[in-house]
Automatic annotation (TrEMBL):
InterPro entries: DedA-like, VTT_dom. The keyword Transmembrane applies. This is DedA family protein. Keywords: Cell membrane, Membrane, Transmembrane, Transmembrane helix. It comes from Deinococcus aquaticus.
Length: 195
């Protein structure tokens, strides 16, 4: 946690924006510390090292721009990848499934994906592959970014003011949040497999 705190303090708001952008928009960014970054930044704001409003703006801007980048990557390159004749993991029928999914659950997926690690990296790209209308995508993108970018740093800020030395427990808290957020996805996958 000390390394994350040092990183946030040295990179400040631009660093937060850049990390959130990469995590939400670039497929290689799935390993970046999204939730722990936001919680830690909230805790640092509670300690007076950062401004909470600045943290929230950096997160929201990075999340919106990152998802737009992910959408355009999927829109531009996704169909070519899924149409390769010998592709093992990327089959053309997956495009049809993605299109149906985003027609039915697109708004929910784009908004709620913010709160699920790895999923928040994949959803914008798959929305682009499935050709979800850009206007709708951006609406849900902004709503999700605001909900995520305000609530998670605010939670860190609140807990940081409430619990002394919270920075020692951030990884445990993030692990618990990740487990709880993945449970509905696992249940849905199991339900789909049974059907």
């Amino acid at each position: 946690m000390h390394d994350l705190t040092a990183l946030i303090l040295s990179a400040s708001y631009f660093g937060i924006l850049a990390i959130v952008f990469a995590e939400t928009g670039l497929l290689v960014g799935f390993f970046l510390p999204g939730d722990s970054l936001l919680l830690a930044a909230g805790v640092l704001a509670a300690n007076g090292d950062l401004n909470l409003g600045g943290v929230m703006v950096a997160v929201i801007v990075g999340a919106v721009l990152g998802c737009v980048a992910g959408y355009w990557i999927g829109h531009r390159f996704g169909r070519n990848i899924f149409s390769q004749p010998n592709a093992k993991f990327f089959k053309p029928e997956y495009i049809t499934r993605a299109e149906l999914f985003f027609q039915k659950y697109g708004w929910l997926a784009v908004i709620l994906a913010r709160f699920v690690p790895v999923v928040r990296t994949l959803v914008p790209t798959m929305a682009g592959v499935s050709r979800m209308p850009l206007g709708l995508f951006n609406l849900y993108n902004i709503v999700g970014a605001v909900l995520w970018g305000v609530s998670v740093p605010a939670l860190g800020y609140y807990l940081g003011g409430l619990i002394p030395n919270l920075d020692r427990y951030i990884l445990i808290i993030v692990g618990g949040v990740a487990v709880v957020s993945v449970i509905p996805i696992i249940l849905k996958v199991v339900q789909a497999r049974r059907a």
